[in-house]
Amino acid sequence: MEKYILGLIIYLVLDISWVYLNNKMYTSNIENIQNSTFELNIYAALLTYVIISLYLIFLIYNDFSLINCVLISFFIYSIYNLTNLSTFQNYSAVVAIIDTIWGTTATFITMYIVHELTLSQSLSLD
């Protein structure tokens, strides 16, 4: 349970910091798609982080190598962003690429730190 809490804290700090620092990029992209002012649906945002926490449990408590964690994350973020790119007329390809790289990187950093701090055998580096 400690590994999960550690992973969740690391991921939340990384992701909330990233979104805060890149708020203009995401807001501009959304407003360009919607042709209206961005308004956060807080309930959907909270549900997203609940799903992310389940995803982290899945990664932390299964016997995945770090590279497999990164690949799973890359697939998830790629599917999300490519779906948006294919269905929203004004979805930015640059945002899709940046967001996919970010999500993959955030997962890598989270899983690497969890591994290093807990010296877990369930998350190998190969």
How would you sum up this structure, described in words?
The protein has helices spanning 2-21, 23-34, 42-61, 66-87, 93-118. The chain is mostly helical. It starts with a helix and ends in an 8-residue tail after the last helix. The mean pLDDT is 89.
Please summarize what this structure is.
The protein has 126 residues and is mainly α. The protein has helices at residues 2-21, 23-34, 42-61, 66-87, 93-118.
Proportion of residues in extended strands: under 5%
Radius of gyration: 16 Å
The number of helices is 5
Q: Could you give the count of β-strands?
A: 0
Q: What descriptive keywords fit this protein?
A:
mainly alpha, 79% helix, elongated, 5 helices, single chain, 126 residues
List the helices and strands and how they pair.
Blueprint: H1 2-21, H2 23-34, H3 42-61, H4 66-87, H5 93-118
